[in-house]
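A quick word before the example. In earlier lectures we treated sequence and structure as two separate objects. From today on, think of them as two lines of the same record. Here is Beta-2-glycoprotein 1 written that way.
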Amino acid sequence: MERKLALYLLFPFVFFTIVKTQHDNVCLRPELAANIQMDGLQRFYSPGAELALSCKQGYTPVFGPRKIVCAASGEWTKTKIMCIPKQCPYPDTLSNGELHYEDTVFQSMINYTCDEGYTMFGNSSAVCLADGTWSTPVPECKAVTCDLAPIPLFGMIIYEKRIRGNTVDFGVGGTYKCNPPYIVVGNARAECTVLGIWTKTPICQVVTCPPPENIDRGYMSTSERRDYNYRETVKYGCSGNYVLEGSYEIVCQANGNWSEKPSCKAPCSVGIEKARILYKGKKIWIEDLTPNSVLHNDIVSVYCMDKRRTCGYAVQTQCIDGNLKIPECFERPRAIDYSLYSSSLPSEITQC
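And the structure line, produced from the sequence above:
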């Protein structure tokens, strides 16, 4: 009875030892590099089992054996197999455009762009496929063109260059003109844009200005009370000693308004009774200024005394629309000095 019990207790121990030994002699499913693959889904392999290795799609094998064997130790034999990405050919150049890429191996991408004024026909990108070819051919960049420019009623366009056929290249422009009395309203220049359409076309329109008004103390070259066409002109002048300031001619503008009218500016009297002045490059006594008047914008110089250095100096003043301001440094001479001792006046002594 004791012998049977001993055998019974020993049996589980022997069974466990056999299972454990078998487990230690098998190879687990090998861990492979990312781009290497093998067939089957088996998890355990007996010693002597062989596994064929291959590269994943898009990769090419290099170096070492492509087979590993499960050794009695439960380890797989070593392999130096490497899988490198397949290479696509270098892409052709893109006329009138550019291509951008970092590499030409499997899964690399090329992006295509056309130069301004050109439109792309084909795909704007390509990918290097697993078989070493590009997914799409190189696209084509064709020049943008516009139809001939639209012509407004009563108008025409003058192109910047000679046009052949019924199309115009991108960037080419022209200038619109209208048949008189019509004028261009809007931008007179037009251009074929990158979108293949023209910029906004102006219109031809008759523009008139109302009868012009006269100016104070002046006269016009016409007395007709009528509307005037675009670019018609009217001239102005001033009466007597009044001076015209501004353009003597006004023009009917494209907006239907006249250009700015001139004005007539009044002459000035020199507000001193006894003195010598400098006018138009000459020294004259004030009583010899007949009439006592200078024109608008004229410059008159009066003489002041530098008492510290005992010398005279001229100070300018200007007639502005009837107002001639006498400089503060000017001192009116006494009657006796002006009559008997005029040589002592600031205008007659040594100048500073």
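Notice the following. The chain has five domains: 2-85, 97-143, 148-204, 208-265, 276-344. We will return to this example when we discuss secondary structure assignment.
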